[in-house]
Amino acid sequence: GENVEQHPSTLSVQEGDSAVIKCTYSDSASNYFPWYKQELGKRPQLIIDIRSNVGEKKDQRIAVTLNKTAKHFSLHITETQPEDSAVYFCAANTGTASKLTFGTGTRLQVTL
Amino acid sequence: GAVVSQHPSWVICKSGTSVKIECRSLDFQATTMFWYRQFPKQSLMLMATSNEGSKATYEQGVEKDKFLINHASLTLSTLTVTSAHPEDSSFYICSAHPGGGVTDTQYFGPGTRLTVL
Asked: Is residue B100 predicted with pLDDT exceeding 80?
């Protein structure tokens, strides 16, 4: 089955700096890679996603890059703000039934 | 659009009792719903995949007789934790997938926090 690894587990940046979170996946058949933001006690919220036919996608301060050959994808947040503080999860589908396998999560803290 | 609700939002029960959690897609039809469990400071672990009108598919290590899933309609799936024990205390989250090849996105419910005394 799919295995998704995520690094780092915690990340602390100063407000205005950039944050990068990296994930690797194992199943070459995976073709959909979403990123979720989860605040304490809340539901995961989709912040950006990318399909395997695209190498990069950007939405304002958030971007995701995908390297299919190396089987890794990354989340980039620029000009970080305190409200970006949360746990971020990457995920990859398994190709059947739209199942998602989640990474272990990254706790991002943006300090003033 | 694409709103998913869960009920209850939290529940406290005694050991040995059963608890039912509902997951509803409010403004779209979900051919597939997924049930996840999340322990504190951990990731989401998929428990089972629920397809309308058919039996759920459980992930390895998840007891199907303990976690009963019913997907009776295109907008409702239920998870029943039978004979709950303290180790079943967790955050249970459902997600709904519209299907039909329209989108890959799963829409998550707000979660249900289960505490078993």
From this structure: no
